[in-house]
Amino acid sequence: MRDDVQAAAPSAYAYPLLIKRLLHTPFVQASDHEIVYRGQVRTTYTTLRERIPPLAWNRRSASTFPPDVA
Question: Is residue 3 one of the residues assigned to a domain?
Answer without folding.
Answer: no
